[in-house]
Amino acid sequence: MNYDFCRMYIDFQSDILTKPKVEIKEEILEELKPQECEDRQVVLHCEIPLAFHFGMLIRIFSTTYLYDAHSTHKSDLVHFENIVLGPAWKQIPPGERIKFSLYFTGLPKTCSLFHFKEEISDQSGFSFRNIVRNDRDVYHLKLSPFS
Q: Which of 31, 59, 68, 125 is 20 to 30 A off residue 116, Cα-Cα?
C-alpha cells in the first residue's frame, strides 16, 4: 500500500473537516441576548371558579399574548384546549366550573415577570398581570369572568 498517498489523503481530509473560526462582537451578542427564547412552550391552565346562575359564554381570540414585563417581547398563542376561538362562543351551563388551557411560544430566557392579555376591541378580554416566571413555564390562573 502506498503510505504517502494515505498520508496525503488524511491531510487533505483534515483540511476539509476544519471549521472556520467565527468571531461575533460582544455588543452584538448582548443585543441578541434578550431575543433568545426557550425551545419549550408556556402553558396557562386557566379556571373561572363558577359560571353565573344563568350560565355564560366564553371564547378566546388569536390576539391573546404573553408580554415580557421588562422588554418588548410578545409570545403568541399557538394552541388552546377546552375553549373555542372567537368569534365562536362556548356555552357553560349554570354553576359549572370552567377550565381551559392556553399554549404560547416561549418567553425570553431573561424574562422573570410577564403579563397575560387578550387584545380585543371592547376591553372585555382576559387579562392577568405580573405573573412570576417559574422554571417549568406552567402556570395555574384563577380568572374572573370580568378580568
A: 31
Mean local confidence (pLDDT), 54-58? 84
Domains in the chain, number: 1
H or E stretch covering 6: helix 3-17
* DSSP states of 19-49: PPP----HHHHHHHGGG-B-SS-EEEEEEES
Asked whether residue 3 is assigned to any structural domain, the reply reads no
> Does residue 27 lie in a domain region?
no
Q: Which domain holds residue 62?
A: 37-142
pTM exceeding 0.90: no
State pLDDT tens for residues 100-118: 999 999 999 999 999 999 9
